[in-house]
Batch of 2 targets.
Target 1
Amino acid sequence: MKLIDSFRDKEKVDILLKQIDKLNIKDKEYRFMEVCGTHTMSISRFGLRTLLPENILLISGPGCPVCVTSQGEIDAIFDLVKNNDVIIATYGDLLKVPGSNGENLYILRSMGFDIRVVFSPLDVIEIAKNTDKEVVFLSIGFETTTPPSAGLVKQLVKENIKNVSLFVMNKTMPKVLDFIANQENVMVDGFLCPGHVSAITGERLYEPLVRSGFACVISGFEPVDVLMSVKLLMEQVNKGEFWVENNYGRVVKRNGNELAMKLMYEVFEDSDAYWRGIGVIEGSGLMLRANYKDFDAMEKFNIEVDYSKSLPGCRCGDVLLGRIKPTDCSLFGNRCTPEDPYGPCMVSSEGSCAAYYKYGG
Amino acid sequence: MCLGLPGKVIEIKEFSAIVDIAGTKREVSTMMLAENVEVGDYVMVHVGFAIAKMDPEEAEETLKTIIEYADEID
């Protein structure tokens, strides 16, 4: 697509780098957090950190849904597979996430358990129509991915399909952003706000952050998008004035996608959620509303999650909060690699550790 | 998982559309789109759903603004 080529254009990248250099107050440190796994991947893939002056730091936040899922939930999925005659339908990202005893969905599949990768929640419908077994969809993700899960539930009702349930691990952005902004030891000047989450939520999601004195720029994912967003963040920081700037207007509208938000909240309601490495954040998760509880795998299979579980030595939590760089973890690159990941940030292609390992810092 | 891909609409159905994503044709749900799409429009596709209609003019505007920076630098 010609448009994408233009957003990777070297000449435009050079112009932006000169602009950034002109704006750069060299004895100052600019700390910007990206809260989207795709930003993390793009920044590493295009080597954007190495292009920027050393005093401009891009820090990866808790924007990878796989990475922030609790160990207890991951282990509960494996128990569900092993103890029930079910078909698991999942996005591919979850296949290599290790359980507390080292197993993962790939391994379980090779042992004969029925685990299928889907590209869309709607793919679950076809699986369900062709089996008498229960199909459990691992519903995970933020505001971008949750409305499609809600779309699945609505479709199940419409087609009167009863043999599907959702293992709901979905989370939302507002409360976790608020949590990060109020951390004493997380020093962030601004946020590179997630492009596709914003396409759903709209700009209002970030208004509390700017009121608290953080620069906020909604950004696309191409090198030109990210560098332009860094420049716009620097302008806000230098001025000491903060507002929500939309630098992804080709996709994000001011009010977002109200239809998608409505769909999401028709099917789900806010609940407390446990974030890996962070703990419980009140109202930061989602659960099925009472009238859709028939589709809740947790209730159908009486699943109990032990949220106190963690992987010993894994520092994904510190990585997710920007306290350390992936390379500061002693497991990085030895015990923990994309081929044999120990922690979730190394598993998902959107995880910061995987991005650092593959492309360097 | 959060990856969104731009696709060009090549056929419209009642609640879905066939889009061309970098040469691959896929049926995507349009239940989350409030605005009408026409053949030739671009949409952002995420896990099988069109989540937003893309605005090529807005994209061109961004690129034009960057070229204008060049004058400021010189």
Target 2
Amino acid sequence: MTDRVVQTSKRSKQAARIADAASGGIRMILLKIVLLGIVDAIAVYALFVLALSDEWLIASLVAVVTLVVNWIYFSKRKLPAKYLTPGVLFLIVFQIFVIGYTGYIGFTNYSTGHNSDKAQAIDALMSSARERVPDSPTYKVTIVENLEGLGMLVTAPDGEVSVGSSEHPLSSVRNATMDGDKAVAVDGYTSLSFQDVLQRQGDIVGLEVPFSDDPNDGSLRTPDGSSAYVYTSSLVYDEQAGTMTDASSGTVYSDTGTGAFTSSDGEELLPGWRITVGFDNFARAFTEDSIREPLINVTIWTIVFALLSVASTFFLGLFLAIVFNDKRMKGRKFYRIAMILPYAFPAFLSALVWAGMLSESFGFVNQVLLGGASIPWLTDPFLAKVSILFVNLWLGFPYMFLVATGALQSIPDDVVEAATVDGAKPWQVFRLIKMPLLLVTMAPILISSFAFNFNNFNLIYMLTGGGPRDAAASVNVGATDILISMVYKVAFTGQLRDYGLASAFTIIIFILVATISIVSFRQTKALEELN
Amino acid sequence: MTTVLSRTGEPITDKRPFSFGRWFGRTGWRHIVGVAMVLFSVLPLLYVLSSSLNPSGTLTGSNALFSAVGLDAYVRLVTDPTQPFMAWFGNTLLIASITAVATVFLGALAAYSFSRMRFTGRRFGLLTIVLVQMFPQLLAVVAIFLLMSSISDWFPAIGLNTHIGLIMVYMGGALGVNTYLMYGFFNTIPQDIDEAAKIDGAGHARIFFTIILRLVAPILAVVGLLSFIGTTNEFVVASILLIDPEKQTLAVGLYKLVSNPNYADWSAFSAGAVIAALPVMALFLFLQKYIVGGLTAGAVK
């Protein structure tokens, strides 16, 4: 580049630059218009979809954000915003919004049995309790489809033709094409061929078309795609009273404000619906013994685990850094590369490999290193904790070694020399001079390492799965679970997915983490570096 | 802070005759520590390599290191129709690469504006990024899942069970520690360069794309690689958002492959681990001096 510059004269160079900048400017503007055009097109599409499903709040949010983005990029100023907007948008949606949303969920009963609104819960209840009405007439059916999905074109025994789908109850039609006494096609819908019916049998058997908006009227189902039968629910919904009555047993279930229809003796009909329960989840976490005990144990173990992990990796790393920081020693490069291999190996794989090596009856450690012992490394509550700390030492010491070596080499030689001249012994030099200097540089790293281990989900989940399980606890939690793995298990594994309780745990953890971080940041004054 | 690169200092030449005791006292014992640590570090890796070459498949069969050598496990892993390993591998490479590139890009944009521009809310912005990081994304996983499942009600193309959706969630963490690392590095590039370019008529975008990005290439490589490794290792969000086996990543797929190591096809898993780890480790060792420099500048593992 410089060669060419030298050859051209000063003026032509300047002219070339101006031309270059100008053409770059036009290209930039074109690129900007194209990119913004794409963004706007997507936004308009999103607005249509959202408006169709009546999500006006979200639609208006999308509109506002799109307008702001356009305004930022077309304005002459707003320079920092142009650079910050893309990252900040993602940050707001997937970090800040979800934090707030977690807070909201923590105050609801959102869980497997309570994951929709009341109307959907009523539909689901009635639908699951539906049975075929004995001796009901046969309705002739043609399966039809439109953009919204499958529907039924129904010819009633009295010859009346109507069409409907699972979301739209039957409504009569006049202009249907008849084949004998059966309607086979109607405007606005495509009739499915016999082959299509065979192929999509699963969907068709599950298709249920209600007679009217009142769920008590029952609905039509077709086992074969050509004739349908009337199904009514054994539950009767009374909209005025807001109660569900079981027609066969006569039990009345009413909405008692717990997010489910509940009978007088406390029996709940599930699915229920989502309601705000206030501090119930937190109250459960702190008062219900079968939750509180494991929560306290898990919290203590999380802190102990994070502290011991940081301490063990730090001291081993520091020790190694001191050992290998001797220039007279040969082959240091080789040792160093061998020792950072665990850091380069993907961490989730390490945990899985160690899980195999520590296996009680077949693992490498018991079978080969310990000559056929059967030590329950991962299944005994205490040994499992030891194993986790040991494996985390293997995973984490290379990082500390690298960082400590860097910190050690950044200590100026003359400081050490001065101390030696003053008569300090090597150990004194280390303890009184090197160590404090090291700690100053390493404190932020130790804190972030603590924070990392506090949420070191992969290690725990892949090595022990949190186990061995605590049988006394009412939530799925084990001896080695840390807070984050407990949240994951409460929310996503097992029969009952309790999102509300898991979010309440999350908030508790957040308060804990924030307190610890603020206190430690205050102490190290790491934030002072910001300017 | 200086890097930890080994300095090529020659050992001080000793005129005195060789004495084992003195040698041992100075550096000999260090070699003992070194050999012990090398064994500790490398043994599990040798074990994986050995069991991946073991045709038998069981955990017990893997214990005698390198007793049998063959590529059966690799063949089994790649051809078994019940576990789409190649799809996992491709997905992971795709997702991790896109996430890395996008993270670097978004992070660099933000770092540039924080480093070069003075605007109201700058300090607040920097602080917010630090504070938000205190609440790891991992913790909000329930909310992320519910948010994505409502997004898929309206836009199935970017909701649950899509790679775009997962990458978007990862983008939420693009500003953060990465921005900090880059911000520090950007600050070390003299502002004079920008000013010279400005006088020559270059706009801010031109300065950013053609000058700054080239000068900060080392830190971009570090952040990109750390993000790549981080995404490869990510399990929680991927396991929740990706449902179909063919859509999943290595972390999710391989975990399921050996969720009970006693009964799993251990050799096939090891083969998968070797294939998954080799590119990452090669990249790591190749770029290690940059990474070490980046780490000591205050990164987090």
